[in-house]
TrEMBL record:
GO CC terms, sorted: bicellular tight junction; plasma membrane
Upper taxonomic lineage: Eukaryota, Metazoa, Chordata, Craniata, Vertebrata
Transmembrane residue ranges: 6-24, 79-97, 117-138, 159-180
PROSITE patterns: CLAUDIN
Function: Claudins function as major constituents of the tight junction complexes that regulate the permeability of epithelia.
Name by which UniProt lists this protein: Claudin
Subcellular location, record wording: Cell junction, Tight junction; Cell membrane
UniProt keyword annotations, A-Z: Cell junction, Cell membrane, Membrane, Tight junction, Transmembrane, Transmembrane helix
Family: Belongs to the claudin family.
InterPro entries from the UniProt entry: Claudin, Claudin_CS, PMP22/EMP/MP20/Claudin
Length: 207
């Protein structure tokens, strides 16, 4: 029970972090590398919007106008993050039902453990989708930064904080889901059959 609870809390924290990473606009940010450092305006771009932060503290954000005009890696990362959040949501529901510390379905512990394992599998899939989305976006940012171009180095983009949040979220989701998958219903089934085994017959005593 303690292992299931620890796995659930880790997976829940991973899902919340994945939600924060999907919403944050800091998937890539202006690079300050190079000789001439420009600090007047800092640009940030995410899956849903792009923002410009001025040195005075004013931040202006703008939603991406058209879905079809976006680059392929942004559309793919969007889809993967949405799938990850949906899988994590259903994983939360199933894990609450299947954990031993909850009162739902106590009359059938085998089915309850199977539900907990199913929730753990959903958390693992959610973490893998988050990892794929973040890694794909990071690969594109790396490619655009190091490719030969006339754009100055200080005008290019590098990793934003949302990418690191996404990597941490995927790690927590996979870890929590793995702990939940340790609830093996086969052991409980053998234990129930052992306890329910009828006592040996004592007919010989009356012969």
């Amino acid at each position: 029970g303690a292992r299931e609870l620890a796995g659930y809390l880790a997976a829940l924290a991973g899902w919340v972090a994945a939600l924060a990473a999907a919403v944050l606009p800091q998937w890539r940010q202006s690079s300050y590398a190079g000789d001439a450092i420009i600090t007047a305006v800092g640009l940030h771009e995410g899956l849903w919007m792009s923002c410009a932060a001025q040195s005075t503290g004013q931040v202006q954000c703008r939603l991406h106008d058209s879905l079809l005009s976006l680059e392929v890696h942004i559309q793919t990362s969007r889809a993967l993050m949405v799938i990850a959040l949906l899988l994590g949501f259903f994983g939360i529901v199933l894990s609450v039902v299947g954990m031993k510390c909850t009162k739902v379905g106590e009359e059938d512990p085998v089915t309850k453990s199977r539900i907990a394992v199913a929730g753990g599998v959903l958390f693992i899939l959610s973490g893998l989708c988050t990892l794929a989305a973040v890694s794909l976006y990071a690969t594109q940012v790396t490619y655009e930064f190091f490719r030969e171009s006339t754009i100055p180095v200080n005008a290019r983009y590098e990793f934003g904080s949302a990418l690191f949040v996404g990597w941490g979220a995927s790690s927590l989701s996979v870890l929590g889901g793995s702990l939940l998958c340790c609830s093996c219903p086969a052991k409980e089934r053998r234990g129930q059959q052992y306890h329910r085994q009828p006592p040996p017959s004592t007919a010989r005593e009356y012969v």
